[in-house]
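We were asked to recover a plausible sequence for a given structure. The inputs and outputs are reproduced exactly as logged, with field labels preserved.

PROBLEM: sequence recovery
POSITIONS: 418
GIVEN STRUCTURE:
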């Protein structure tokens, strides 16, 4: 029996031998998993249980910044696991303190809170904003304002700040005290932020809604308006941060400094970790007993995150991301212009790109066709293809990905799409 075969139920195969359905009967069926089982990775490639190699332009949903099985990350994980895996936040321990110091130095934010995921980071930021207002004698400031199209997570608090009715369905009543304002609409934001607003939380680039960048004017206006009205400004950089836009933090790309930044995904290159970077002015809002987590800042994910930050500092990864992002965007733009009946122009920043698909074609059908070509891409938002490859991807791999993508377009016929 090959690795990965235990518990699998293969019902049929596709045109190129891919299983139509792979069932793991004891896993909760809340994911529509693609018909493939991966057993290991190598840089920008994933290898399945049949030894087929797939070019990965998803990177674990913008997580594996340095690719799969990077020896520097692997070594850091192994060394830390042999020393200390867990001891709880009842005590000080390393390397959490060291990682907090590195993030503070790199970002300019004075305090760092660690948790286990992006959703948890946003939950902490929401609680911080409300507690900050409460400690400042403004208990009426309870509203957390978010943007239309926002995605901030799936726990009830983060879900209440997520503007997607499909994600809300069946989970009501959601927590109160959340409101929405149109994305990239400065005039609407001027009206939305008032004396009841604790914070405005915004993604510099909206990922789940289809890779939609904020304008610099909108984010600069958000800073100005929040300052004038006494609200905090929170940047959700869970997907757009950690170098994906061509700068370590998304706020650096846009030239706007928020009060709070939430991070996760790529921080530990695949291990679960979330972080909240907090301006010193507001860091005192959360005091002992106000918020906590059993596993936040655990040694092994922190060791992986430190290794990630050290490795990326060895070369000019940001310049590489900008160059490779431009190469990929140019290739996608050429394809969109070659097939104007199927695609609109690509959008995004750095190596966070989206290609809108025109009906009756669907992003999901093209994702399935790409899988047949041993290419991993992802559908996001309203019929958009999302490209978030490892940041170490090189020019040859981008060109190979574009070649396979063209083949997938031919495979995703109109009949398959509708």
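RECOVERED SEQUENCE:
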């Amino acid at each position: 029996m090959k690795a990965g075969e235990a518990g699998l139920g293969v019902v049929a195969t596709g045109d190129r031998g891919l299983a139509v359905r792979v069932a793991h009967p004891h896993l909760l069926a809340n994911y529509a998993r693609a018909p493939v089982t991966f057993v290991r990775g190598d840089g920008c490639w994933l290898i399945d249980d049949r030894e087929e190699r797939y070019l990965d332009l998803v990177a674990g949903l913008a997580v594996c910044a340095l690719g799969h099985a990077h020896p520097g990350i692997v070594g850091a994980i192994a060394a830390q696991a042999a020393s200390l895996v867990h001891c709880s936040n009842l005590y000080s321990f390393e390397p959490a303190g060291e990682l907090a110091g590195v993030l503070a130095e790199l970002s300019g934010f004075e305090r760092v809170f660690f948790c286990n995921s992006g959703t948890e980071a946003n939950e902490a930021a929401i609680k911080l904003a409300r507690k900050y207002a409460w400690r400042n004698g403004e208990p009426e400031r309870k509203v957390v304002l978010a943007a239309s199209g926002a995605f901030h997570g799936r726990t009830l608090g983060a879900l209440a700040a997520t503007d997607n009715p499909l994600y809300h369905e069946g989970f009501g009543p959601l927590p109160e005290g959340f409101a929405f304002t149109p994305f990239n609409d400065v005039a609407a934001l001027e009206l939305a932020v008032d004396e009841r607003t604790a914070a405005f939380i915004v993604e510099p680039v909206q990922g789940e809604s289809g890779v939609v960048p904020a304008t610099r004017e909108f984010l600069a206006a958000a800073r100005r308006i929040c300052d004038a009205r006494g609200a905090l400004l929170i940047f959700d950089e869970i997907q757009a941060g950690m170098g994906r836009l061509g700068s370590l933090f998304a706020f650096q790309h846009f030239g706007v400094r928020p009060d709070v930044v939430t991070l996760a995904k790529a921080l530990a290159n695949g291990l679960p970790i979330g972080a909240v970077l907090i301006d010193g002015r507001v860091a005192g809002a959360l005091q002992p007993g106000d918020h906590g987590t059993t596993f936040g800042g655990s040694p092994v994910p922190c060791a992986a995150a430190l290794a990630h930050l050290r490795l990326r500092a060895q070369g000019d990864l940001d310049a590489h991301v900008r160059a490779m992002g431009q190469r990929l965007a140019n290739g996608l733009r050429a394809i969109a212009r070659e097939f104007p009946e199927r695609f609109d122009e690509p959008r995004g920043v750095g190596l966070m790109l989206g290609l809108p698909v025109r009906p009756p074609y669907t992003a999901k059908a093209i994702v399935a066709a790409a899988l047949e070509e041993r290419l991993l891409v992802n559908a996001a938002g309203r019929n958009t293809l999302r490209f978030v490859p490892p940041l170490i991807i090189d020019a040859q791999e981008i060109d190979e990905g574009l070649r396979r993508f063209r083949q997938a377009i031919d495979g995703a016929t109109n009949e398959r799409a509708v």
